[in-house]
Design goal:
There is one protein chain. This protein is of the alpha/beta class and about 200 residues long. Strand 6 and strand 7 form a beta hairpin.
């Protein structure tokens, strides 16, 4: 009869608790990143691809230059991204209510935090909506950071829904048929100003 050696190493029975925790954490991070990234990749699969491209400092200054010093009423940024136009307009014009509409939920959350951080959260609102279904009839100023493929359809929406005194500020691409009242030209930072009262 063979005697068992009590000092001999025993075979391991499966994976350690630390290994399981590491695999679970890695899997959780991967799923989380996939969910966040999906919001940024999804626009490429829509009929009109509207990618997230942050406004430059020059574009923000050009937009603000078209707002009167005593600007009041309401401003809407269509496709507001990370909210920097909405926040900047609120900071420079305390009487102006500024809104942003954006489909990406993570950018909407980030925009709300940015507004809170800059002390303009009571003056700003951010909506997670499809811009084609968003009601724009109550806005005095509309800012657009669009792509060329969407400008024709967007022009039809603006003409149909905006009041006649609405001022439109288009960045990167002009509206195809409306005649602009002013323009600041500087390559990708070009901004067109339209006054529906005079169109």
């Amino acid at each position: 009869m063979e005697l068992l050696n009590e000092d001999a190493p025993k075979p391991r029975s499966g994976m350690s608790t630390g290994g399981k925790i590491l695999i679970a954490a890695t899997g959780g991070v991967a799923v989380g990143l996939s969910i966040v990234c999906a919001s940024f990749v999804a626009p490429a699969f829509r009929r009109i691809c509207l990618p997230y491209v942050p406004a430059t400092t020059e574009q923000i200054q050009n937009v603000l230059s078209f707002l009167p010093r005593n600007a009041g009423g309401k401003l809407l940024d269509i496709g507001s991204g990370d909210g920097r136009i909405v926040v900047a307009a609120a900071q420079h014009h305390k009487a102006l209510k500024t809104d942003g509409v954006e489909l990406n939920p993570w950018l909407v959350y980030y925009s709300r935090l940015a507004a809170l951080r800059h002390g303009v959260s009571k003056q700003t609102r951010f909506f997670r909506r499809d811009l084609w279904k968003f009601d724009i009839k109550d806005y005095n100023f509309v800012v657009i950071f669009g792509v060329e493929q969407m400008m024709q359809d967007l022009e039809h929406k603006l003409i149909a829904e905006c009041p006649h005194n609405t001022k439109i500020i288009a960045c990167r691409f002009p509206l195809p048929s409306l005649e602009h009242a002013k323009i600041i030209e500087d390559g990708v930072n070009t901004v067109w100003f339209y006054d529906l009262n005079k169109s």
